[in-house]
Amino acid sequence: MFRKSLQITFALLAITAHLTAQQWGEYTLIPINGSTTVRLRDTASVTYHTWSGLTGTTAYSSYMLPGGVLLRTVDVTNNVFTGGGMSGRVQKVDWNGTLLWDYTYSSSTYCAHHDICGLPNGNVLLIAYELKTSSDASAAGATYNGTLWPDHIIEVQPTGTTTGTIVWEWHLWDHLCQDVNSNAANYVTNTADHPELYDINAVTITSQTKDFWHMNGIDYNPMTDQIVVSAHNTDEFYVIDHSTTTAEAAGHTGGRGGRGGDFLYRWGNPARYGQSGSANFNVLHDAHWVPQDCPNAGYIVALNNKGISTTQSCIDMVNPPVSGFNFSYTPNTAWLPSTYTLRQNCTGGTSNMGNSQQLPNGNMLICLAMSGTIYEINSAGTTLWSYTATGAVSQAFRYSACQLTSPGPAIPTITANGNILTASSATTYQWYVDGVLIPGATGQSHTATQSGAYVVRVTDSDGCWFSYSTLFDFSLITDISSFDQSFRFNVYPNPSNGIVNLSSAVLPGTNFSVQVMDSRGRLVANEKNNLILDLTHLENGVYFMNLYPEIGGVYTERIVISK
Description:
This protein is mainly beta. It is built from 2 helices and 43 strands. It is globular and about 80 Å long.
């Protein structure tokens, strides 16, 4: 949780003593839109560091990565996709201005825009438009007869100075519904019954709003492997599952949430999915989770551009109804809560763009983009620092001095020996299970007391950055003598690289089925009359294989996939 600083978030520093009275961190990143210069300014508003003469002008988002690396979006001319927030290009630039990575995602059929988000593994999430023809729109049940620009998300793995491989993607187009065209594949009898999908006709589309979602913010939660995005034209934010494969992300099943690429949660405007309730946003930007070690960690935050009035913005925080890797929901109602959990009124307004950043000592940095005003307040709302740039600033972020020099800790790995989980070497540790912090679990090893998806968060000796492991699925080892042993079958090899063989004196000549369940009881494989199972698609972890012979009963063996 996880403001985008690459899912390696802020560690608490000694300066957080007397928290409510003083500023946090030393340097604010201020990238002016349309400029080839990016500056870090100290809390006396003096320039501390400058990147000048950059290749391409700043489009929308810029962030600092460990080791003083600048991650930024860059303008690219695209004759098809035009309008606010367009970028088409993302760069990594080192402290001295050397271009480390320069990746373009722009063509006549797609173009990156607005925000980006770095991931713990070094990959980057990009949000982008894709072109759909009027025929595509008609086939999807749209009442608008024209081209559309639906959003999609790609995860890019840098492979060279200018190249990258798309290793995961999600498309809004795969998760639309409508009740107009009964011949279309996405037809439902009542769109209100499907809040997990987006009604393509929920907002009247015109030639000016063919980007009918207009996604403008994206963030990643490394403890649940989920993504949150904000959409300007719908006044909602949405949580989707990143634990899916690309194929699962195009469908409605799979992933830890079990819903494929459908929405796990949406909030902001119940009318968009046919439910009663007040619209909570009036133009929103910058959806993100409050980072760990900040007050209200785990809340989802967004800038409500016209939340107070047409000239005054506010920062709204929502405590979502988390339920494991899903969110609690009562059918045919509005998703809870009914209104914001916390609100911070801004000292002014920005009609568009802008962001906030929640800091470890309870302070908040707020960027009113259109005026270029950036300021820090304490938990009482008192302004501690302010600066006004000469130009629009879509987003601004505060960093501590050591964050600009520390390379950050290596991404930790987890191994299991029985019920003991052990992290790779680091300076500090904090364990989580199913997205929830485990109190007191701060050692390199942790004895698991429940099945679930474990994450360890670590710091290095500098203590400036956090790094998170990937989710480690673990099934608590119990006494398997409780299983029915009257019928035994062998599973080999075990552990297996994914190709599993079955043998039993009883199975030949009989019908049987096999179901493989993961540590949370989800069905991940289902075979009939097959003595060789291909489970190479499964992640490393512990699974339970249930055998159902035609003679009756169910017989279980524990298997381990280790590739």
